[in-house]
Amino acid sequence: MWEYTDKVKDHFLHPRNVGEIEDADGTGEVGSLACGDALRFTFKLDADGRITDAKFKTFGCGSAIASASALTEMVMGKTLEEAAQITNQDIADFLGGLPREKMHCSVMGREALEAAIADYKGEAPPSVEGEIVCECFGVTDNEIVRAVRENNLKTVEDVTHFTKAGGGCEKCHGKIQEILDQILAECATEAPAAVATPVKPVKLSNIQKIKLIEETLEQEVRPSLRKDGGDIELVDVEGNLVLVRLQGVCSSCSAAQVTLKDYVEAKLRELVTPDLVVEEVAA
Amino acid sequence: MRDFSDLVYLDNNATTAVAPEVLEEMLPFLRDYYGNPSSMYDFAGVVGRKITEARERVAALLGARPDEIIFTSCGTESDNTAIRSALMSRPERTGVVTTRVEHPAVKNLCEHLASRGTPVHFLPVDSLGRLDLDQVAESFKAEPAVASIMWANNETGTVFPVEELAQMAHEAGALFHTDAVQCVGKIGMDMSTSAIDMLSLSGHKLHAPKGVGALYVRHGTRFSPFMIGGHQERGRRGGTENVASLVALGKACELAARNIALENGRVAALRDRLERGLLERIPQAKVNGDPEHRLPNTTSIAFEFIEGESILLMLNEHKICASSGSACTSGSLEPSHVLRAMGVPFTSAHGSVRFSLSVYNTERDIDLVIEKLPAIIARLRELSPFWPQDACKVVA
Q1: Domain presence at residue B126
Q2: A59 neighbourhood in chain B, CB within 8 Å
Q3: In a domain, B1, yes or no
Q4: What value of ipTM does the predicted structure carry?
Q5: What pLDDT digit, counting tens, does each position of B26-51 carry?
Q6: A42, A61, A161: best to mutate for the B interface, most B CBs within 10 A
Q7: Which chain B residues are closer than 8 Å to A102 by Cβ?
Q8: In this structure, are B341 and B356 located in the same domain?
Q9: Is position A199 within any domain?
Q10: Do A116 and A14 sit in the same domain of this protein?
Q11: Is A187 among the residues known to form the active site?
């Protein structure tokens, strides 16, 4: 059973703004019956160019319906420029978070919004451009690149969770990995500030932070290090500086710094707080 | 823990409640009689004798000999043991014949074996989920070591003619294994007159707890163990016996033997009442599978233009438990491989819901679903961009 937040359940059981605006200024349609979810989003503008009404119809699971319902509330009263700033993460955050496997529902919301804005402007919806990578779900390289960049995705599984690409016959996994490798290589050469988008902007007390760091190391980091015969020990936490000691084969591994920064630090930033810095202390 | 006392549980193909008689029978072997049945004192002897009794009870339900029963940890282990054993012990033959609609315990194992070079033939099914016997015969020409074909499908309840298939396998020189996890206790069986060589069953589908199963292996069948260890199960499955659960499985089999008539009488009638009630009240809904040959407790109904997870979540609000062949509930992104193999169109595959009953269900359970579900379907169709507005009528 999925662990849905109360807000997701509320928006699923009592969806807001269901329906279709007949003389809509913009209509966006994404998804299909074959894919298992689809969304039709319509909006109406007032004289000042603000969204006065937005409605949706969704074919899909609980979180797809909740994401669309959330979207209609989020855009209300916004100008198109303001609405265009809404990301899939904003939709997920509005709902108090979505299970990672269900993030594609929030992406579908964002895509429908964009398609509707493009429709209003008389442009082609952005997501149809590009070359199809995933045949099962009709996902293009552009959509994948965008989801990877906006959500700081690292693995093929992540890409599937966010775009559904690769969730069917799995033949495109190699292609998705290539796209990931390319973006990760680009990110490595870019200024570090451009990389991490904060995932969980929560204020943590020091005790909460240390506890969460310990938990993350135990549940997320150690199992994969141990698989390779290594381990990691938490030495201290000073503000946002996390001091660790690498053990086992990790302590003598030439790639240890990469492991530390690209993996341990990335994991902690993702799951604890985005401003953490991980440093190694001598054994 | 939340209070689930007024639960309407219609997901018995997923798992079942432990029968009170079963729980009572097993508890002393968790609490008091903890001896290892292999040990040399009376305190262990009482345990050993109870395991013997459990084995006899399982054998009796299948019409088998006690020494043809190997206790395992679950249906999946039984399936893995059977198929791997057949391949290991018959190296002169090549590969496996199976179907596209098997449970993952067989399907994913066979796909794994195929990826390692074992020839595997996956037989297709028609739109009602039935096999074409000519295609089966054709597939046997490749001289497979074993055919593994389920007795009854877990998603649709469709029953395969396993006796006929087993005879065909024998004529072609192949062993025949069947995953009977869903039908033991629902379909009468007599291994003493059957051509079936190996049969898997699972405790938790027939009111025993999770974590126990059995594999029937016909006397004289070449066998290669999967779990290598101690001398337990006469060297055919190592590992200290899960005593309390084996006792439970024995008791559950004894109960099941008594309840087969009930399953095919009262339970089947409740299932039919549910199916009829829903089809009469909900437009554009149809039953998946073969109505002529299916389990008495199962119905899979496709509701067009909506998605299964949403239906289940709304049923959950009324404490009604069912399951779905939809993508979102399967942990993958594609709808059930069974429904896809049957060519069920996407318009209805995503919105298919399975209700599976047990002897503990009542008319009240069924009537609650008949009362609640039409409004849920109508509500979700209202939300669906594919549902034509004017068709959105619920027959009162």
Answers
A1: yes
A2: 305-307, 350, 383-386
A3: no
A4: 0.87
A5: 999 999 999 999 999 999 999 999 99
A6: A61
A7: 328
A8: yes
A9: no
A10: yes
A11: no
Long-range contacts at A126-134 (CB < 8 A, ≥ 24 apart): A127/A30, A133/A165, A133/A172, A133/A175, A133/A176, A133/A179, A134/A163, A134/A164, A134/A165, A134/A166, A134/A167, A134/A168, A134/A172, A134/A176
**Are the beta carbons of B383 and A18 separated by less than 8 Å?**
yes
Residue A30, domain extent: 6-122
φ/ψ of B212, rounded to 5, equals -145, 140
Q: Which residues are bridge partners to A45 per DSSP?
A: A51
Q: Is B305 on the interface with A (CB under 8 A)?
A: yes
Q: Does A138 lie in the same domain as A111?
A: no
Residue B152 lies in a domain: yes
Nearest CA in chain B to A136: B334
**Are residue A10 and residue A118 in the same domain, yes or no?**
yes
Chain B contact probe: residue of A42, A59, A100 with most B CBs at under 10 A: A59
- Asked if A179 has any chain B CB less than 8 Å from its own CB, the reply is no
Question: Are B49 and B76 in a shared domain?
Answer: yes
Which stretch of A45-59, A189-203, B211-225 has the lowest confidence by average pLDDT? A189-203
Q: Confirm whether A112 is domain-assigned.
A: yes
A interface test, pick of B115, B328, B372 with most A CB neighbours within 10 Å: B328
Of residues A213 and A128, more confidently modeled: A213
Binary contact (A168, B333; C-beta < 8 A)? yes
Q: B215 by DSSP, 3-state: which?
A: strand
Residue A1 within a domain: no
**Interface contact B382, partner A, CB < 8 A:** yes
**CATH number of the domain bearing residue A95:** 3.90.1010.10
User: How many structural domains comprise chain B?
Assistant: 2
Are B328 and A38 inside 8 Å of each other by CB? no
> Do A218 and A266 reside in the same domain of the chain?
yes
Domain CATH for B30: 3.40.640.10
Residues in chain A closer than 8 A to B315 (CB atoms): none
Residues A20, A114, single domain; the answer is: yes
B26 CA to chain A: closest CA distance, Å? Answer: 29
Q: What is the CATH number of the domain that holds A265?
A: 3.30.300.130
- The shortest C-alpha distance from B235 to chain A (Å) reads 33
Contacts of B328 in chain A (CB under 8 A): 36, 60-62, 102
Q: Which domain holds residue B211?
A: 20-256
Concerning whether A35 is annotated as a catalytic residue, the answer is: yes
Which residue, chain included where needed, has tokens 């399936």?
B79
- pLDDT tens across A211-239, in order? 788 888 888 888 888 877 788 888 777 77
Could you say which of A36, A57, A164 has the minimum Cβ distance to residue B350?
A36
Q: Give the domain CATH number at A176.
A: 1.10.10.1100
Co-location of B225 and B281 in the same domain: no
Number of domains making up chain A: 3
Residue-wise pLDDT tens digits, A23-41: 999 999 998 877 788 999 9
In a domain, B377, yes or no: yes
